[in-house]
Design goal:
The structure is a homotetramer of 405-residue chains. Chain A is of the alpha/beta class and 405 residues long. Chain A is built from 14 helices and 14 strands. At the A-B interface, strand 6, strand 7, strand 8, strand 9 and strand 10 of A face strand 6, strand 7, strand 8, strand 9 and strand 10 of B.
Chain lengths: 405, 405, 405, 405
């Protein structure tokens, strides 16, 4: 793979590199690691890459790699830049014939995501989106149990994602804070675009339901900010189930506390990212069950995403790696027609199968994510309580424009 | 004290009796324990009361007791009936010269609560309301720390109260379910009236803030029910702080999971009723603190509401007892002018003082509680997002009327 | 009941009074609350007792009460003094015709406990011992499940009881520390006598097994102390099961962290006093179960010791009260021949039956407890690893005697 | 690196490969993955290795690699075979000029470990041992705080390591169970050799103390086993501190529950492998602190072993990787003289320094580990309570020999 962004000083690039290579199925062979050409090259060399493949810009990388032979050139491009660059890079990468794995949110707005879908369909290439939290084995276990009907009809979904890292003015000095709070680089939302979209994705992924209506209350809690840093959203799903979603970057003391609860007719399920190897299942009339990774029977897809036996905790990097590794199987599937024929080559993963491979978030998740962001912002700006969830671009007023008004 | 309601087969009556007498400051001397006269008398006898004071109706009790001498007759009446009887009993009790302790919600609607306030003011008697959860020592510790400014300005309040005991149709058979789901006995709300009001009270009690605006989404999740069994409310407080309140009786597997989180500028605080002896305090840049009852310095009011040293868990009954015991000191304060003079008589409680005594929820809490219920239901029926919190009775459409439409 | 000890300034007396009266089955009618006659009388008056029954010494109380009529005099004596007084008071109380409830450990040494047994048998009266922790409903639930065979044959028992309140020299200033560290008042052990004996009792109570052999390592961690303040004991039980017991008063930061784990062939069970309403049950090949008080079916004895529904935590005082209330039924059983006939009189407890009543720790527990203390101290003084558990008084060298050597 | 053992069907080999390569500092270039030559080659090919470097035996690998040029041949050998092969492989590897990283326990007995030390000293090469649990960042944080004196003088160490995977006869069918229970392959202990040694290492590592005396009680809980599957050890440390160590493979329902508690004069510390990103610190007179990875200031060595920000849990594989990555810096240090000069090349790790690099367990840990195993078994066979901890090989009777007697 080749990487765009993630040079020295960036945080998420290093995470992506560890995740992509963790299962020994993907190799970083080139990169354009920074918008600063010198830093881009220096970053690549620090990663032990061939100097000729430490590119000075993503355009250069995509053009040069396309000229290399099949056995040499990268198979896929990983995009780990600020949001506003996701679309142009993905577009050019696909057009040059490379599969794409993108950090989320997929694009800077919904219109771009819809355009991206067209390009993907035209090129016939693969596209993956790192909704990392769906990569956790026990998230997959929760999904499997719901799919099997262990909860009965779902009544209510409660998802929350509090963080505290932007609680105060002086938290804005980091590089990561700077672009996230800048509408030009981040899009129309900070909190909902950065983490609310993870929460919405997790809720839909685990339940298999789709949001159809919402009521939103976004807020900006520090003077001078142009984008939201906190929000609560009431939800209605296509099955009639209801839900609530809370996300915050100003909840002081909270680390990265994504938590999901799903209540059905006969049981409920709870999962928390801070202790990701446990699912708690509760019933009306019998003891709750602590379902621990590797203890008792696990779903086939869960197993395909685990590396260690019970009691040896896997974490965030492994969840991340699951998305990459399954995506690598998608690519190999293309290359070798039948993945089953190459089973012998993958001894380090417990198992893998079509269902696990197809579990990687793709362009549909990307579009729903961008639609979520736009619908939430639009709903928040409305005085009417309920807002229909639409897959069409929304009309939105930017905060600084409001301030002028 | 004398009790109205709480006869054989009732749950909450026994709880009140234990709580009231736990600190040896209050004695049950009479009662009208049931609307069924025979059951009323039998229940009283089973409690070892004098037969002559096992009354057949509350009217009889109030009249007869009023005729007894000062040294003999009860000082206060405890009301543990279904909601619709709270007001008439409290009214008659006050008019007959008795202090009143009432189960919550105070009345069946806001108009009654306002009328009750007038009667209290006219009679000059004492009125208490068993918002039990504010009786927990560590809730008081959280309040004290917020009051001292340990959190800085409050930004956000998140309170949730999920239960699962009314999740399904067949859960409606119990006596307790029956009247709570009957608008004639319960008022215009089931879930919000029964537990949402606790959550709102807890949020206002701990933070010292007042709700000024709300957006509500109530729902009824089982066919045939006339009242809400679940709801989410977005909140605005008088300081500008925001909040969310969730209450549910259909969240299967949840026991009685009242939980409060308050986020300030410099710290946040978390308390959960299922593990009531701990407050978790979190900060941006240093380790979280597990503040445990009795470990380290506790606020004076916290101490006045504890009986055991660290590591000897107190529970729900002790929280309940705190409200009764402090109320008994209010009464004694009236009787003996200066409570401090009688300190020697109260060796079983660590300490007590005016601040702790005045901490008992009274008619103001009662009115805000009834206003909360009416405003939430009105807000839920509105298509407009935000609804101002008003202390005036609200215009509300009952669900069964809607169904006819 | 009448109380000996527990006057103003004492901690445990107030706990006993709340516990004894919590279920409205026992009434405190008299007392000799202090070895200081003036304090004894003042303490009684502060508890609203008749002045004539606020006695100046236990001898006076026992003699005077014995002269009162059947309908007036106390039924039972509660002993809450330092250890060395337990035996003489219990002896005189029994000889004067009163049932006895004693704080633990039962006596100051094993010889006294054996003598006490003779007196009890001669008088035919009832004797109870407040091994409080066995009063917790979920401890009883654990016992019931083991008895039912849900764990299979027991392999291993791990019990630990760390406290930190005597960690340092300056912790010795309290009244409670002073007598516990004084061999004349406390007996031959501080840590094992005060809390180790609770741990041993809990292990035997829950498993139904008996200790037959032990290896002990007691230590004294603060200069100048004559008795142990920490210890670990390896155990063998009559079934062949093994175990470990740890108790400590110098484990800084620990509150009162009694915890029991029992491992069988097919399942294991875990209970912790700091969160007493949960039993965790684990299996080899299926999810662990969080068994919560009131959720799902509970054993009949468990139910007989609960007052609140699921999610309304009961605590230490309720566990304590269970011992008193069941003991009161034992007494009433004597008085009325058949307890079932008086069921109607006990509406405030869920249920009660012979099995629950007989669950109160008595003289056999008392003897095993004193034997545990003596055997542990003897084993600790031995250079040989294993020491047989004997019900005969042990030969022990006191630390200060050793120092002379 | 080259690997010995860890072929298809083995568990720990895959773990080592992920760990070694996670930080992109080490590359697997060859291997002799199985004692079955065909499986060895097939396993290597499945890992995408050059066919010429998929060796048929470790002897072949060591000889052939030694013949390759400096820029091509492996730098280090990783040994992941059953215990009895550790020594001969390490010996030959060192003699052929390769650094060695070995799975634990280092050798099959103490004599071998002592011999290994001589070889290491003679060759001047590097030797590392994967005591994985010391690789956790929060274990290092606990160690740092103790070193800084935050606990005062240490009084007591409590370490426990219960597992349940060998609880019953039918658990013996797995490959991993088979060799661990075979004295010829495993050495003189199963439970203590496999996990007790981790617990002892953790206790010494975190506290900086050394065991000087012990009293042991090992047992075998399933008929037909020749080695221990459970044990408790009482400890004395060189500072006079005391301790207990429990390890078990028959505690049904336990996963891999390594837990350490250290009690000092002024504070205590607690860490649990199942939730490895938290250290709990307790005090006598102020709230406990939940020290979470990445929240607040961390020690420099802790930071050097973290990859993710607060709230993004790292797990077992990352702890494992820390040992490998720091070891790779040791090697590089040798190659480039001054590691600081190559800082620019290591952008993916937060930082690294001499202290962190020297934190890798080496031959001294290996010798103490083997001595622990032998001393524990010898102590367990003694009828005398206390056994001095010695670094000389112990005289031990094997269980099957006992059976013959």
């Amino acid at each position: 793979m080749g990487m765009v962004g993630g040079g020295q000083g960036a945080f998420i690039g290093a995470i992506h590199r560890i995740a992509a290579q963790l299962d020994n199925q993907i190799e970083l062979v080139c990169g354009a690691f920074s918008s600063d050409p010198d830093n881009a090259v220096a970053s690549g060399k620090a990663l032990y890459l061939e100097e000729s493949r430490c590119y000075r810009s993503y355009q250069e990388m995509l053009k040069q790699e396309a000229l290399l032979g099949d056995d040499k050139r990268m198979d896929m491009v990983v995009i780990v830049t600020p949001n506003f660059l996701h679309f142009p890079i993905a577009k050019m990468a696909l057009e040059q014939g490379f599969h794409v794995m993108s950090d989320k949110p997929a694009t800077v707005d919904l219109a771009e995501a819809l355009a991206l879908k067209d390009i993907i369909e035209q090129t016939g290439l693969l596209y993956g989106l790192t909704h990392t939290y769906t990569g956790y084995p026990m998230v997959k276990e929760a999904k499997a149990r719901i799919k099997q009907g262990q909860l009965g009809k779902i009544k209510k979904v409660v998802v929350e994602y509090p963080q505290g890292w932007l609680a105060n003015k002086n938290d804005e000095n980091s590089k990561q804070a700077a672009w996230r709070l800048d509408p030009k680089k981040s899009g129309i939302s900070c909190c909902m675009g950065d983490i609310g979209v993870h929460a919405a994705n997790l809720a839909e992924y685990v339940t298999g339901l789709s949001i159809t209506e919402l009521c939103a209350d976004l807020s900006t809690n520090v003077a001078g900010r142009l984008l939201d840093d906190d929000g609560t959203v009431l939800l209605r799903f296509n099955s009639g189930a209801q839900g609530t979603l809370q996300a915050s970057q100003v909840s002081i003391g909270e680390e990265n506390s994504l938590k999901l609860r799903v209540y059905g007719e006969t049981a409920s399920i709870e999962w928390s990212q801070l202790e990701p190897n446990t699912v708690l299942m509760k019933f009306a009339d019998k003891p709750s069950q602590l379902i621990r990774a590797g203890v008792g029977e696990m779903d086939k897809i869960t197993q395909a995403n685990m590396r260690t036996p019970a009691g040896h905790p896997e974490g965030y990097l492994e969840a991340f790696a699951n998305i990459y590794t399954q995506f690598s199987y998608q690519i190999r599937d293309r290359l070798f027609v039948d993945i089953n024929a190459s089973d012998a080559n993958n001894s380090d993963l417990n198992t893998h199968d079509k269902a696990a491979i197809n579990d990687v978030p793709g362009i549909e998740s990307a579009i729903r994510g961008m639609a979520f962001i736009e619908n939430v912002v639009a709903a928040s700006q409305s005085e009417i309580k309920w807002h229909p969830f639409s897959l069409k671009p929304q009309k939105i007023t930017l905060l600084n424009e409001l301030d002028k008004g």
